[in-house]
Design brief:
Elements: E1 15-19, H1 24-37, E2 41-44, E3 50-52, E4 57-63, E5 69-72, E6 78-84, H2 89-98, E7 101-102, E8 123-124, E9 127-128, E10 133-140, E11 146-150, E12 169-180, H3 192-198, H4 208-221, E13 235-238, E14 244-245, H5 247-251, E15 259-261, E16 293-295, H6 297-302, E17 317-319, E18 326-329, H7 335-353, E19 362-364
Parallel strand pairs: 1-4, 2-4, 3-19
Antiparallel strand pairs: 5-6, 6-12, 7-12, 8-9, 10-11, 10-12, 13-18, 14-16, 15-16, 17-18
The structure holds flavin-adenine dinucleotide.
Flavin-adenine dinucleotide binds at residues 8, 42-50, 64, 85, 110-113, 115-117, 119-120, 122-124, 170-171, 224, 226, 233, 235-237, 362.
Length: 368
């Protein structure tokens, strides 16, 4: 079977071996078995954030299909859930919203599996997994050990984690900490576009189901909901992350370029020079930390002259007609065509603004 059948962008050739262990115990056993061979391996959930090369993957693909949502004991008011890695993420959100548990409602409609959610710390409409993730059950490639890893160890940041940055292993399950409240109200709405859609102010709370409904509608309008009837949803979601640049660099950009301050957990960690700890240097002046500025990748692409629906001559890969940040397979596109379009957009943005866009999905044998 070609991996194009298991990925939402519908590109990618076959893997040498394709495994789909049915239970958590078999998932662990199979994965350890694959690791023991020394062959290359790849964990695949819903395939919504990967781009696989046309000649496929020379190794074992372990598909995670294990299901289950279990409520664990917790303090009153808190709801602790253990979710198996293969459980579809949006089903978990629906489960929580139906029961009046708040914390992940703005993450409604994100495709893929729960086990992949921590990899890039999924986020949308002002919420991120980081604020609800308690721990993961992790099979560590380096030690072969299966253990509960607290979320702090994952160093979750803007669309990143220690796992995305190269710590290899398998997420077997995740633990979420949600808030139970009798009136089933959401967390405060913190995203202007969502607040506008709901007709409320920032910081307001609303019934969970209303927030979920509004998020799903906003996502559908952007082709960001997997929908067999929407050709713009044949994508890997946002193809590029929003770049983080220094404040000084951002000052040189056009005044209308959107920019946001970088939150403490988003940018690179700030390292103090050792000198600061010398007695003569104490007390250190409380210098303001410049964490940089986050730019809008969609704005940069649009203002480099690329319009929605853009495609290179003869190519079946295109920029989504609803959202400049998604690259779509309009039918029969190859991974090479997707890569070619992605590189073209990068070149345009680099030429216009001096910013190198970084791809968000995992690229398997594809050069961008
Ligand atoms: C239409 C669309 C909209 C999207 N919108 C958003 C959005 O709003 N916000 C957002 O953050 N993302 C979004 N995405 C990206 C994607 O949905 C998320 O990254 C999702 O978490 C990927 O899940 P998956 O199971 O499909 O992972 P896959 O694509 O199968 O894998 C992604 C990565 O995770 C690894 N991985 C998967 N499962 C495991 C596991 N159990 N253990 C270890 N590693 C694992 C893979 O090896 C790979 O590196 C969107 C994608 C699409 C197609």
């Amino acid at each position: 079977m070609d991996l194009s059948e298991l990925t939402t962008l519908r590109v990618g050739g076959p893997a040498t071996e394709l495994l789909a262990p049915p239970s958590p115990a078999e998932l662990v056993e199979t994965t350890l078995g694959v690791w023991a061979t020394g062959d290359d391996w790849l964990v695949l959930g819903g395939g919504s954030n990967v781009v696989v090369a046309d000649d496929g993957f020379d190794g074992s693909v372990i598909r995670v299909t294990t299901r289950g949502i279990e409520r664990l004991e917790s303090a009153p008011g808190a709801v602790l859930l253990k979710v198996q890695a293969g459980e579809p993420w949006d089903g978990v959100v629906a489960h929580a919203v139906d029961r009046g548990w708040a914390g992940i409602e703005a993450l409604s409609g994100i495709p893929g599996s729960s086990g992949a959610a921590p990899i890039q710390n999924i986020g949308a409409y002002g919420q991120e997994l980081a604020s609800s993730l308690e721990a993961i059950e992790f099979l560590d490639y380096l030690s072969g050990e299966l253990r509960r890893m607290p979320a702090e160890e994952l160093e979750l940041g803007y669309r990143t984690s220690a796992l995305k940055r190269g710590r290899r292993g398998l997420v077997v399950s995740i633990e979420l900490r949600l808030t139970g409240n009798a009136d089933a109200m959401s967390a405060p709405v913190s995203y202007p576009q969502l607040a506008t859609a709901l007709g409320v102010g920032l910081g307001d709370r609303l019934p969970l189901s209303e927030v979920r409904g509004a998020v799903l509608a906003l996502r559908a309008a952007k082709g960001m909901l997997l929908d067999a009837t929407d050709p713009d949803s044949v994508s890997a979601g946002s193809f590029f992350t929003n770049p983080i640049v220094s404040t000084e660099f951002a000052r040189g950009l056009p005044v209308d370029a959107p920019r946001w301050p970088v939150e403490p957990n988003e940018g690179e960690p700030v390292v103090s020079p050792l000198e600061i700890f010398r007695p003569e240097n104490l007390p250190a002046p409380p210098a303001a930390v410049d964490r940089g500025v986050k730019l809008s990748a969609a704005w940069l692409i649009e203002h480099s002259g690329i319009t929605r629906g853009f495609r290179l001559p003869g190519s079946r890969a295109a920029v989504s007609s609803k959202h400049t940040l998604a690259l779509v397979n309009t039918g029969g596109a190859t991974a090479a065509e997707i890569g070619e379009l992605a590189r073209y957009l990068q070149t345009r943005v680099l030429g216009a603004f001096g910013v190198i866009l970084q791809p968000e999905p995992l690229l398997v044998g594809v050069d961008v």
